[in-house]
Fold Activating signal cointegrator 1 complex subunit 1 isoform X5.
Amino acid sequence: MDVLRPTLVRIGGRVYRKNLIQEQPFPQEEDEDFCAGPGDCADDDPCDAFVVEETERGFQSRVEVPSPLYKYIIGKKGETKKRLETETRTSISIPKPGVEGEIVITGQQRSGVVSARTRIDVLLDSFRKKQPFTHFLSFALNQPAIQEKFLQFKEEVLEKCSQDHGVSSSLFQNPAKLHLTLGTLVLLNEQEIQKACDLLQQCKENFVDQITGGKPLTVEVAGVEYMNDDPAMTDVLYAKVRMKDGSDRLQVIADQLVERFVASGLMLKEWDRVKLHATVMNTLFRKDPTL
C-alpha cells in the first residue's frame, strides 16, 4: 500500500511523492530517502519552481541551505551526495561544515540539474521538519498587573491543593515568560533569524498597525481550560484570553501572522485557526519527575 499510496510532500505549492528505499541510516535518523525527479511530480506541471541558470558549461542551480542541514545532503561517508550526482549526472558543491553558504548544482543537462535540485529540496524539507524548534512567535503577557494576578492565582492553587499528589510550585510558568503562543519556528542560522525579523516588521507595517490603529490592544485574562478530553490526563493548564472590547482583532492578527509565516516557509501550518492560549501550569516544568 505504501507503493500504491505514497506519502505526498508539499513544497512551494507543488506536490511530490515520497518513495522509501533501503539505505544505511544517518545517526539517529530514519532509514528513508526521496526520489523526486521531473517524472515524480504529482501534478502535470514541470518541476521548475526554482531558478536554473544556463552557463558556458551547461546549467546550474543554487540553493541557500543552513549549515546544520548539510549532513543530510552529504549522507554517511558521502553516500547520499554520490548517489544524487550519479543518478542525475550532476556535480553538487557543498560548503564546508559550519560555513554558511549555498549548495551549487551543475550539470550538462537542464533536466539533471532540475532533478537533483528537486530531490535536495524534498530531503531538506523532510529533515527540517525533524529538527526541534528554536524560536516561537508569541504575544507577550508579562505586564506587571498580569504577573501580580498570576502570582495570586499560584498562591491560591498551592494553598487549596497542597494535599493533592504532584501539585508543587515548580509546575507554574515563570511570570516573566507569560505569553500567547502563535506557532513555533526552526531557524537554523542568522540569515533565517533575520528573515523572520524582517517578515515580522513587514506584517506590522502591512496590517497589524491598521487593525490596532497603532494603539495597544487591551485583553482580559480570566479562567482556565485544558485541551484534551480526559481531565485525569491533563498535562497543561491554559489561561483564557479575550479582547476587552469583545472584538476579534487579536484573533485576526494572530491568524494573519501565522498565514504570512507559513507562506514564507518559516513555519509549518498546524491548525486552520490559531488557538490563543497562555500556559500557566505544565508538567514539563516539574523539577521532581517522580511526582
Q: What stands out?
A: The chain is about 30% helix and 20% strand. The chain has two domains: 7-129, 135-285. Residues 135-285 form a domain with the Cyclic Phosphodiesterase; Chain: A, fold (CATH 3.90.1140.10). Residues 182 and 258 are 7 Å apart (CA to CA).
